[in-house]
């Protein structure tokens, strides 16, 4: 495998991020949402959402990270192979202070690796970078919402130090009211292990789009 790394996303990355998100979200949602909803998971739609988010972030503490492979020191010729979105947790019980710019619990809003580039540790590198970035931003904890039946991603997160805290939510995913359950995993940032030491399933951490 060629050189791999993780860096902060730039505006010109959003096309590849949108392509990855469309592929991974279609894979993750295929058995959950109606076909007409699945058809809306288009690269161009995700690309535009990320472009808007990078140009006008929800808060100064939101970040989009990308995993790269190949390229030179200036990034020429590199390929975006995954992404992770992080920011302050919006959960009412997250222990956040008065506003989104203050310290409290951070959240891994999304994490996904291109299906064609799995098995090379990109998911582990993204998780490690996400945790390090949250810790550097003075967040005291980290959380992630996962589909309750996604055992591979849950095992990966637990190996990195996150644990279910008993919280769950049911997302309506179809016009007839069908739901998909998500469970929340959390950890104090001082307690999270180095994800490079874990085996990564490199799937999406959440079935919804977070930008």
What is the CA-CA span between the terminal residues?
Answer: 30 Å
Quaternary organization: single chain
Number of strands: 7
SSE succession: EHHHEEEHEHEE
The percentage helix is: 25-40%
Question: Can you list the strand order of the major beta sheet?
Answer: 1-2-3-4-5-7-6
What's the short story on this structure?
With 211 residues, this protein is α+β, with helices and mostly antiparallel strands.
Could you characterize what this model shows?
The protein has 211 residues and is α+β, with helices and mostly antiparallel strands. The chain has a single domain (4-197), classed as 3-Layer(aba) Sandwich (Aminopeptidase). The protein is 27% helix and 27% strand. The chain has five helices and seven strands, in the order βαααβββαβαββ. The protein has helices spanning 14-29, 35-38, 43-55, 122-136, 151-159; strands at 4-8, 63-69, 79-88, 105-113, 141-147, 163-172, 179-188. A seven-stranded mixed β-sheet has the order 1-2-3-4-5-7-6, sandwiched between helices. Helix 4 (122-136) links the parallel strand 4 and strand 5 (141-147). It is globular and about 45 Å long. The protein starts with a strand and ends in a 23-residue tail after the last strand. Mean pLDDT is 85; it is low at 194-203 and 207-211.
